[in-house]
Amino acid sequence: MGRATLKGVILTLNEARHIQACVKSLAWTDGVVVLDSHSTDGTQDLARATGAEVMEHEFENYAQQRNVALDAVNAQWILFVDADERATPALAAEARQLIDGCEETGWWVPRHNYIFGHRMRATGWYPDYQLRLLRRSAAHYDDTRHVHEVVVLAGESGYLESPLIHYNYETLPQFLDKQRRYLDYDVSILQASGVAPHPYTPYTQAVRHFWWRFVTLHGWRDTVWGALLSALMAYYEMVKYLRVRQALRSEREQAITS
What we know:
Blueprint: E1 6-12, H1 19-25, E2 32-36, H2 43-49, E3 53-56, H3 62-72, E4 77-80, E5 85-86, H4 89-99, E6 106-109, E7 111-115, E8 118-119, E9 130-135, E10 139-141, E11 151-153, E12 157-159, E13 164-169, H5 172-192, H6 201-216, H7 223-257
Parallel strand pairs: 1-2, 1-4, 2-3, 6-12, 7-13
Antiparallel strand pairs: 4-9, 5-13, 6-9, 7-8, 10-11
């Protein structure tokens, strides 16, 4: 049957800092494609200089962007890698061995997340499986999930043992900024689901979330980093429910005055 073709795909927007190291980590594939959203920091030139093919497409949302790549890239298999991630030689060997003649149409890849310089061992950031290795003809992304994308797979999936390396958050301000950017989307999901929090719900949710990450997900294994990140994520869980409560209260007040 011959060896299955596999290409690495990297979605980018102003990733000059990471792009060359990421492309180099995918040198074992049959080609690297960078799907760029009009970067202005030289990302495209750096990617080409490292041997990648560059395509350009206006960004609408992550699901749509990944579907563009699935339609455009000529390979039997696609490995999606973010610019701040690195594929390891162990992952390369395992992926190559498994995709030749396998029945699975997708593979979940674990990640070693580095947060504030610490490799997370738990707290919800390990094994942190991501469905990234996809048989192109059998996969697409749910276009209703614009963030935290969901793969719709025709067939069964399996789990790799070798991880991607993810240089996730280097500083606390970077972490806080990204969580703030996720808030609007997460709030909209709760609102669309008809969630109506009680006055105490934001605070009980915060306690539950801290317990879930630090105890249930063994965040204690990450010592001070596990405690800090469990507390930060619990705080944003509280803020999320406070925002939903505030929106509902505003709607009621408008209904009364109208």
